[in-house]
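User: Can you model how calcium ion sits in this protein?
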Amino acid sequence: MLIAALIACSTGCPGGRQRALPDGKTEEDALVYPDSRGWLGDAGADADAPDARPAMDATDAPRGDVSPDASPPRDGTASDSAGDGSVDSAPARDSSVDAAPPCSAVCGDVDGDGKVTATDVTLLVNVLANNPPPNACQQANGDVDGDGQLDDVDRRALAAVVDGRANTPSCGSRCSNACGDTNGDALITPIDALRAIHFSTLSTVPTVCELLAADIDGDGVVSSADANAISAAIGGPTGPTCLNR
Ligand SMILES: [Ca+2]
Ligand SMILES: [Ca+2]
Ligand SMILES: [Ca+2]
Ligand SMILES: [Ca+2]
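Assistant: Here's the modeled complex, given as structure tokens:
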């Protein structure tokens, strides 16, 4: 009888309708259990008409769905969103997380510890030798004369600051004092020579720019020899020439 029913239903079930079968059900199951109340159950008066299939929720994954997940895994494991077997590239890093810390606000603080000490001079000497090459903060805070270059003039000026022979500089503004013009009035007068003497005795502590203008022989120290060189240039067609600058 079962075989006969299978043969009969292979060409059309009663009522002329070909029934669809739910998962796990064979056509034989449907014949053996005709009153099953699965989605084929007939809740209405028409015993032949199957009830409408329950609407699929938008969140339901269709059976046999092998599509890749839309979102990457949360556990840090590799994902393959394209489903092509290749692992997705790493997501872009949040640059704000990796942002470098700000530079020290202290001009001359080459090592970034917030102070200007002999260690900064030592580090500046090293970075001038490219060992290691200066980073952006070292470049900015080491350029104490503000000329945009990191060189031995900065090293001499920074050493003077550490030794108390010059005041703490303000990076970012270029020194405007011409050589010998220790008071910055664009003239070479006896006042400039006198100030150089004061610098040499530390009765007046110069700025970095004033020190560099007074250090005619370029040895990093303002001495009476520098004051004399300034005096010699007073009234001349040109000012003195600062060495090593
Ligand atoms: Ca420092
Ligand atoms: Ca410089
Ligand atoms: Ca002057
Ligand atoms: Ca000098």
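A couple of observations from the model: The CA atoms of residues 42 and 195 lie 111 Å apart. The pocket of calcium ion (ligand 1) is lined by residues 109, 111, 113, 115-117, 119-120 (CB under 6 Å).
User: Helpful, thanks.
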